Amino acid sequence: MPTEPSQSITAATRKRLNHRAESLRDQLAGADSLPLLTLLGLLTGLIAGAVIVLFRWAVEIPLTYFLPDNFENFEAVSSLTHLLLPLGGAVLLGLILQCVDKRHHATSIGHVMDRLQNHQGRMPPGNMVTQFFGGAACLLTGQSVGREGPAVHMGAASGSLLGQWLKLPTNTLRPLAGCGVAAAIAACFNTPMAGVIFAMEVVIMEYTIVGFIPVTIAAVAGATMTRLAFGPEIAFINAQSVMGDLRELPLMGLVGLVVAVFAAAYIRLHGASCRWALNRPIVLRFTLAGLFTGICALWIPQIMGVGYDTISSALAGEIGFALLLTIAVTKLLATSVSLGVGMPGGVVGPLLFIGACVGGAVGSAAQMLMPGSASAIGFYVILGMGAMMGATLNAPLAAMMAILELTYNPNIIFPSMLVVIAACLTTRWVFRCDGLFQNVLRIQGKFRSAEAMEQLLSRTGVRGLMDRHLVVSDSLINLNTAQQLLMHHPHWILLREDNQLLQPADLHTYLQQAEISADSILNLQEIPARRYDLARIAADANLFEALDLMNRQQIDALWVESLSDSHQPLGIISRAKIDDYYRI
After folding, report:
1. Distance between CA 318 and CA 309 in Å, rounded?
2. pTM
3. Number of domains present in the structure of the chain
4. What span, in angstroms and rounded, lies between the C-alpha atoms of 570 and 538?
5. How far is CA 1 from CA 6, 7, 445, in A?
């Protein structure tokens, strides 16, 4: 028939493509995965950057029409709107999420860290959808949240879902999620280097060359996407001042100490709100948070939304000492309550906002103490931003890099090192506070500190270490079949129906010593041999998952099954092989 050649060609092409895909998965599971991982990082960066651009458009375009002058000017609307907008938005969002499966409620950076630590980087698509629309709803209704947390979640999910869609080994999901995080931060702030450091310091929590190169290329791709959409914007380009006098160093150190008080207060209040919110209805939680934000906004409308316009005013020295402290305290309370009860917003933007106000207040005091020689208030504002972000998230390097890229002011490097480190040390040692996300995950019972062995084994897939020299056999065979099995010189004989493993040397010894006729039936379950009980593991698993399964089932080997055909064994992974790999 005419269709048969076409069908055979299609089948042959499909077979070649499947073989090539399996070869690429094998390569990604091993140690030589860097070139492929870099290409996947680039693709992840482009996808994540596009998602963040869409998210920003979904927020900024409607607000441009709703708010006068610019999309952040919530201060210009009426007092009644200040109260009803966050309250109504929170109630509506709570009612919608009440109808959504509870598994899809978790969002933001804490969710990303939980999935990377406890689920091998597998991120569910439902939570990403909740984050996109829930995060946009929060920002559109003036909740006291930021856009960076949603961006990080959606970026990480872009990388993880790409890996899952391509059926890549799980050891690649964490790096791809990290690539998405870096691209998201780069696209959100236009800060590619800060995106790289943030991804590795806060989310992945490890530095490796294999991780650094793909994450860097992803950050470049993410920044490229946002520059194509919004231009080469620099958030705080007007902050181009220098430190006035070395005698200011004690005052700048004071910025770090004061910021540490606010950072510790934020961590504890956020944790208290999270603890209260456990197992309470989402409508109740969101309604109370929206009401609290609305009441605060009646008096201090600057806390609504992202608040970059308020930061710009603080940089210009347009806000007085008392108002700066009032705004900082109010923003801290509203944000810790809103995010603590689970609203799908971000924390990085509010931390920069609070730090800017605290730094500006200390800068105002410096102007009074050292008139004419003190640095500009805007200089202190930037220092406070970096200190608050670094101390609260336990990410000093990411914070320093962020404020450098946000201002493009190299003069900020020297004093920022002092201020950020002072804030971080005081928060950790004096107030005994862990980083915000570690604290929240611990309250939720999800925090688990990965050991060095787990980190090492999670980077390699079972495909990269499995022994492919095996043959599959039934338990009952004749002499001829047994001899044919040994002709292939296998390392293992898999009794698939019995989930057992046999060493060929034992069969060979038995055939040499026993008197067996040609028509005899051998029972491989009964011949003298050492047998291994087995379990199955998917070909996309990593070595840590394999070792964990062996420990749970108290066995010493697993057979690796194909993703496309569950009856097709690809190889054997043994405990001894993993032990040798870890020792090396």
Report:
1. 11
2. 0.85
3. 3
4. 10
5. 10, 10, 63
